[in-house]
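Issue 218. Parser rejects a valid record. Input:
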Amino acid sequence: MRQVISLLVENKAGGLSRVVGLFSQRGYNIESLNVAPALEGASRITLTTITDEGGTEQVVKQLSKLINVVKVTLYDSAIHVLREMALVRIQVTEDNRTEVLALSEVFRARVIDVRPTSYIFEVTGQAEKIDAFLQNAQVYGVRELHRTGNSPCPAGRLKRKKVLQPERGRLQSMILLRKPHPNRRSKRNMAKIFYATYLTLTHSFRLGDL
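Output the parser choked on:
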């Protein structure tokens, strides 16, 4: 199965050759590979390969042992966002120019260069989206293609809201939702009865004074 592996390495000579050499020794083909500067003076190597589950585990362990490798991350669709960018030059004529532009709108491809006989489109998204765009563009003639390969990025975590405990006597509605103890319920009922009797007697005495 296809696996995307991201490595954070120190920006020193020989780091890329060690990574590629490890895959060559194990007989794994690298489908896509890109290297770019990362934060804090490091570089990020992102590659796509086809291995089984056991082979992926062994590769990750071996990569972690390489010199200058700081961190190895295996792509997980549940916690990562995966994107790829492609530059595609398509041949156009006066007859199909409108159709090519309509196709680019369907896939949200951006025109970045216009020539009398060709357009260059920038397509961003998952690999399946780019493959579908290329398949439909073959009818008009794809003259040149440049793909960056997969680039995963961890998604942000949602902050959990803290549930504040209500202070005693402030949120009466929430207090009433709590199931009181049977003894406490009887005591409260008796207290209400005594209080109602007290109000009744007090009111009667006041009327009598009048």
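Fixed in the parser; the record now loads. The chain has a mean pLDDT of 82.
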